[in-house]
TrEMBL record:
Organism per entry: Paracoccus zhejiangensis
Taxonomy of the source species: Bacteria, Pseudomonadati, Pseudomonadota, Alphaproteobacteria, Rhodobacterales
UniProtKB keywords: Signal
Domain of life where this protein originates: Bacteria
Signal sequence, start to end: 1-18
Protein name: Polyamine ABC transporter substrate-binding protein
Length: 345
């Protein structure tokens, strides 16, 4: 059963999936699915060695503490932190032909690309929205993000143990849709809302498989979820809805790969890996196994008619908070406040 094997993989010390010893990929559990980078296997005969992490801050701390890998898969708001810490170096654009096919909006920032080079290759994107049991939760209850405060669901909700996603929820719920210029008043309102929501939380999920397991077991009925949690639940025939258009809105994010300095493996194989990821045919594997969209426009064309794209990736008539890079000091403030809230303060 996928829900449990993925959780087990996370619990193991890195590397948790040993294969080709000449390339180590530090990644979110679930992205070791061969269909996402089949071109690499076709050329090299095996998958890379994968080491796994549960959230962006955990990955950064481990790499900053000396863990060695060739590439990592942070989401967009982390890239400036990697650059500031001197952990990454630019990619060689001449070795990545598919860059020309990437949706340009994903590189529209000097944090990702400047006169020093290309620091980040966006590869995948998705949504954070309301997952709910369609058998236990009426659709009208998820028409508002206030479902997370509803006493009817006390002890029946789950939020991510991810400050970025949880603050995105709190900002949306309190009327803020742009976190790049948050005022003290907006921060305070969101923190107050989170403290109220905390009273209803049964568990903070560490990864989508854990969230899916909580719902599948009947422990929770409503969760703030990424697309992949929905995929895992439906693989287990759980009746789940994904509400991306509550009146206050939902969130979007994108992630990609960085070129880690002093990687221990083969530089040639690193470029084989990223080129396999960016191939149009990778879009199908990414959608089917994770539920995410591809940054390659040609890849998205191959899956445009899939119902999963319509449900989880299409435009919605509701506010959207895009999880683009925000002020690093503000993000650290949110991290610290989130830890207090989870501790009951």
């Amino acid at each position: 059963m996928r829900l449990f094997t993925t959780v087990a993989a996370i619990a193991l010390a890195a590397p948790a999936f040993a294969a080709d010893p000449e390339l180590t990929v530090f990644d979110w559990a679930g992205f070791e699915e061969p269909s996402i980078f089949q071109g690499y296997i076709d050329k090299n005969g095996d998958s890379p060695t994968f080491a796994f992490y549960g959230d962006d801050d955990e990955a950064f701390q481990k790499l900053a503490s000396g863990f060695k890998a060739d590439t990592a898969h942070p989401c967009s708001q982390m890239v400036s932190k990697y650059r500031d810490a001197g952990l990454i170096e630019p990619w060689d654009e001449s070795r990545i032909p598919a860059l020309a096919d990437l949706d340009p909006k994903f590189l529209d920032s000097p944090i990702y690309k400047d006169d020093q080079g290309l620091w980040y290759i966006p590869t995948d994107w998705g949504a954070t929205a309301v997952a709910y049991s369609t058998e236990k939760v009426p659709v009208e209850d998820v028409a508002s993000l206030d479902v997370f405060l509803n006493p009817k669901y006390q002890g029946r909700i789950s939020l991510p143990d991810s400050a970025d996603d949880t603050w995105a929820l709190a900002y949306l719920a309190t009327g803020t849709t742009d976190w790049t210029a948050v005022t003290d008043e907006q921060f305070a309102a969101a923190a107050d809302w989170l403290r109220q929501a905390h009273q209803n939380v049964a568990a903070y999920w560490a990864d989508p498989a854990e969230m899916a397991q909580l719902m599948a077991s009947g422990a929770v009925d409503v969760a703030w979820s990424w697309n992949d949690g929905i995929v895992y639940l439906r693989e287990d025939n759980y009746q789940v809805g994904f509400q991306r258009a509550p009146k206050e809105g939902s969130s979007t994010f994108f992630c990609g790969f960085v070129n880690l300095k002093d990687g221990p493996g083969s530089e040639d194989k690193l470029y084989d890996f990223i080129n396999a990821w960016l191939a149009p045919e990778a879009a199908r594997g990414l959608l089917d196994t994770i539920g995410y969209g591809h940054t390659n426009l040609k890849g998205m064309e191959t899956i445009a008619d899939d119902p999963a794209v319509a449900e989880g990736l299409s435009a919605v008539d509701a506010p959207i908070l895009a999880q683009t890079p925000n002020d690093p000091a503000q993000r650290e403030k949110q991290l610290a406040e989130f830890e207090k809230i989870k501790a009951g303060f």
